[in-house]
Amino acid sequence: MPQGLDQDLVLVAEDDASNRALLSRLLERAGYRSISVADGRDAIKAAVDEAPNLVLLDVGLPGLNGLDVCRRLRADPRTVALPIILVTGQTASRDVVAGLDAGADDFVRKPYDEAELMARIRSVMRLARVTAEMVGAHGVIAALANAVEAKDASTELHCQRLAGLAHQLGMSAGLEPASLKGLVFGALLHDIGKIGVSDAILNKPGPLSREEWAEMRLHPLIGERICEPLATASQFSSIVRHHHERWDGAGYPDGLRGERIPMGARIVGLVDAFDAIIHERPYRPARSVEEGVEELKREAGSQFDPDLVRLFLPMVEQEHQEIRTPAVRALEALRAAV
Ligand SMILES: [Fe+2]
User: Fold this and answer.
1) Share of the chain above pLDDT 90, in %
2) Which residues surround ligand 1, an ion (CB under 5 A)?
């Protein structure tokens, strides 16, 4: 039995009894479970009631034909993402176009080539799985990121900017695609723990008292706890916990030093600090990109990983215009004009 296919259920909608039996046999031999129906209305009912992983849908069904079934499945929220492969004897391009317009994911031509049919089923299912995983994970993470930005007015769009910068720096540091994904999630959610910090502290226009700082410094731990139930948390929870550690060990919450700080947390810590410098905060105005660059240089080896600073500075030069705040850009334009 092929690996990973053993539990998938395929719905076969085909009016010809011998074709139906043939398809069921082929599917079962390939390790799928299958159920079959002979007309369009039964196909729609079975797609909802049985929740199959994929539908093989004959275009020439009696009554409600395959294209109509396809359109109705796509219009129903319960089946909008159900993978559909149309089975057709007609392969003229207009039929293909009509099928795609109706929302089918792929086509298979009669008579079946068994290997091609199975390859298409595998490919459509694989794509559906990846899409579902991404939509689910990204949806939850984007919602959480919005929650922290809604609470802390000064971080509006900060997390999105940060995710872009962190991804760039992660790429130039040679991170693998899986780590880059965790890095983006971590950048989006690094400050999620601020949900647990009082508004008066987050938006205080002046410096924080010792007690207020103590509460503020809890946000990495609160954030780690908030993210715990997410299935993808293991990819980024270390970023949430450690983004305020310092290279010299004087950071929080664990006082980790040097390379003991996870790479993702070092990256997010660096771009977070830089972005904070060049944007306005409730307790101080935005500083220039040049001042930000100077601070990174000064803190390389004490607050920041010096290798990452070396990689980041050319990126800042290159992205100069994008990183600058509108206020800085407006000032420069003014200077240039006089
Ligand atoms: Fe933070």
Assistant:
1) 43
2) 191
